Amino acid sequence: MPKNPNIKKVIVIGSGPIVIGQAAEFDYAGTQACRALREEGIFVILINSNPATIMTDKNIADEVYIEPLTPEIVKKVIMKEKPDSILPTLGGQAALNIAMELEESGFLRQHNVRLIGTSAKTIKKAEDRDEFKKTMEKIGEPIAPSKVVTNVEDGLDFVKVIGYPAVLRPAYTLGGSGGGIAANEEEFVEILENGLRLSRVGQVLVERCIAGWKEIEYEVMRDANGTGICVCNMENLDPVGVHTGDSIVVAPSQTLADKEYQMLRSSALNIISELKITGGCNVQFALNPDSFEYCVIEVNPRVSRSSALASKATGYPIAKVSAKIALGYHLDEIKNAITGKTYASFEPALDYCVVKIPRLPFDKFIKASRKLTTQMKATGEVMSICTNFEGALMKALRSLEQHVNSLIYEDLGERPLEEIHEELHRVDDRRIFVVAEAIRRGITLEEIQNITKIDLWFLDKIENIVNMEKRLASEELTKELMFEAKRIEFPDEVIAQITGKTKEEIHDLRFSYDIHPAYKMVDTCAAEFEASTPYYYSCYDGECEVDATRTRKKVLVLGSGPIRIGQGIEFDFCSVHSTWALSESGYETIIINNNPETVSTDFDIADKLYFEPLTAEDVEAIVNLEKPDGAVVQFGGQTAIKLTEDLLKMGVPILGTSAENVDAAEDRELFDEILEKCCIPRPAGKTVFTCEEALEAANELGYPVLVRPSYVLGGQGMQIAISDEDIVEFMDIINRTVQEHPILVDKYLMGKEVEVDAVCDGEDILIPGIMEHVERAGIHSGDSISVYPARSLSDKVKRVLEDYTRKLATSLHVIGLINIQFIVYQDEVYVIEVNPRSSRTVPYISKVTGIPIVDLASKVIIGEKIRNLGYEPGLQPESEYYAVKMPVFSFEKLRGAEISLGPEMKSTGECLGIAKDFNEALYKAFLGNGVDLPKHKKMVLTVKDSDKLDAVEIGKRFAALGYEIYSTRSTCRVLNENGIPAKPINKVEQPSPNLLDLILSHEIDLVIDTPAQGIERSKDGFIIRRHAIETGVTVLTSLDTAAALLTSLEKANKEHLTLVDICKL
Amino acid sequence: MKAFLILEDGHVFEGKSVGCTEEIISEIVFNTSMTGYLEVLTDPSYAGQAVCMTYPLIGNYGICFEDMEADKPWQSGFITREIAKLPSNFRNQESLEKFLVDNKITGIEGVDTRAITKILREKGTMRGMITTDENYNLEAVIPKLKEYEIGDVVRLTTCKEIQHFEGDGFKVAVIDLGAKKNIIRELTKRGCNVTVYPSYTKAETILEAKPDGIMLTNGPGDPKTNVGVIEEIKKLFATKVPIFAICLGHQLLALANGADTEKMKYGHRGANHPVKDLKTGKVYISTQNHGYMVKESTIDRDIAEVSFVNVNDGTVEGVHYLGKNVQTVQFHPEACAGPLDTNYLFDEFMNMMEVSK
Question: Which domains does chain A have, with CATH numbers?
Answer without folding.
Answer: 9-116 (3.40.50.20), 145-208 (3.30.1490.20), 214-348 (3.30.470.20), 391-515 (1.10.1030.10), 519-650 (3.40.50.20), 663-882 (3.30.470.20), 888-909+921-1056 (3.40.50.1380)
